[in-house]
Amino acid sequence: MDATFRKYSVLQNKYLNTKTMKKFKTNLLYILTSILITSCSNEPFDQLTIEKIEANSELFNSLKNISENQTDGKEQVCITFVYPFNVYLYDNDSIVVDSRIIGNNREFIEVLEATNQEGAIGLSYPISSILENGDTITIQNNTELKEVIKACIESEIINYCNGLLEEQNCVWKITSLTENKNYNKSLLDFYQDGTGVFYDKGTAHRTSWISLFIEEKLHVNIHLEGTSETAQDWNFNWKAIIIDENTIEISNENDKYLIQKECNVENSCDYVEFRECQTEASEEISEFIFENYKDCIISLQENVTNPLDVSLTFFETYQNALQEINILNSSSYQNTSNPQVIFVNIKNTNTDESNLIRIVLYVDPCII
């Protein structure tokens, strides 16, 4: 059996072992046990195109692992095969001696479990299948069957990863697993539209992200706007290993981090995202009082010995902040998008030195 599929099977087994993926195993069982064989079951075996699947092969193990949880097959996922189908049985000399028409999931499970480690089953090709988008495809051999299973599982794993990362009202705290501790107090916030925010040392960096497979391994691409040192440190395809639903390990050639989910965080100085409830009049709109956030923002700044020597002004755009024009009212501001990045000019009134940071305003779906 080829090494590529063997490596993929190990990845598949890891994800299928989690409690959250049980539903996926159940769905995919329906996929694999609903195969339509167009050939007649009474044809001589030597006139059929039958491909053998050894019981000790990765393909057989993949089928068996997926079929461990019995299902009634009500749900469809990314690809669907239709009942009935024939399974062909081999003798000790690897000759097809019998066939069995499979009419339901239970019968398929029985055949797989009855096949000993030295045995095999056979399938007759071509097999017709329907994709999630309604397109019909034809599978011609075991190799194509592997690719169909692989693509389906990768799609489900990506959806699972996305569901973890983009859970609402949650952020991901970063802990380094190497000597590089520069980002141990930083956080990532992933939004459902593929954007997000990276919080680091009192500023917020606009971020885009996507889950994908590269060389049969799950990755999360993280991209911070701009050319800052922080962006250069984080703009990579990060290899991702899901430890559990609250912990993901990400790594590249030089760095390795644990990101751990923390949900329902109140407004605090852990990160510069400030949340308010939406108003009754309009969804995703709220009133933000910047004055309430000043102490928190100042506390995140380095080299500030006396908060009374610091003034804060707020702006909607970076250019306005640079030119110090169109200053926002810090006692009452209504957001224009959700989430929304606001630029803050932090100025030392003694030295006239300034530092620009970003904060994020987020409207929660609650009624005040």
Give an account of the 3D structure:
The protein has 368 residues and is α+β, with helices and mostly antiparallel strands. The protein has 3 domains: 159 residues, no CATH class; 98 residues, Lipocalin (Beta Barrel), CATH 2.40.128.270; 95 residues, no CATH class. Helices cover 23% and strands 37% of the residues. It has an 8-stranded antiparallel beta barrel. Strands 1, 3, 7 and 8 form a 4-stranded antiparallel sheet that branches. α1 packs parallel to α5. The longest helix has 24 residues. The N terminus is likely disordered.
Characteristic key phrases:
23% helix, 8 helices, eight-stranded antiparallel beta barrel, alpha+beta, 368 residues, Lipocalin, 3 domains
Count of DSSP-assigned helices: 8
Oligomer: single chain
Radius of gyration: 28 Å
How would a crystallographer describe the biggest sheet? 8 strands, antiparallel, barrel
- Please trace the helix and strand order, writing H or E for each element: HHEEHEEEHEEEHEEEEEHEEEEEHEHEEE
In total, the number of strands is: 22
* Tally of separate domains: 3
**Cα distance spanning the termini:** 61 Å
Query: What is the beta-strand fraction?
Result: 35-45%
Helicity range of the residues? Answer: 10-25%
Task: Give the class from helix and strand content and strand pairing.
Answer: alpha+beta
**Average predicted local confidence, pLDDT:** 80
Q: Largest sheet, order of strands side by side?
A: 9-10-11-12-13-14-15-16
Which regions are unreliable across 5 or more consecutive residues at pLDDT < 50?
3-12, 14-26, 28-42, 72-76
Note the overall shape.
elongated
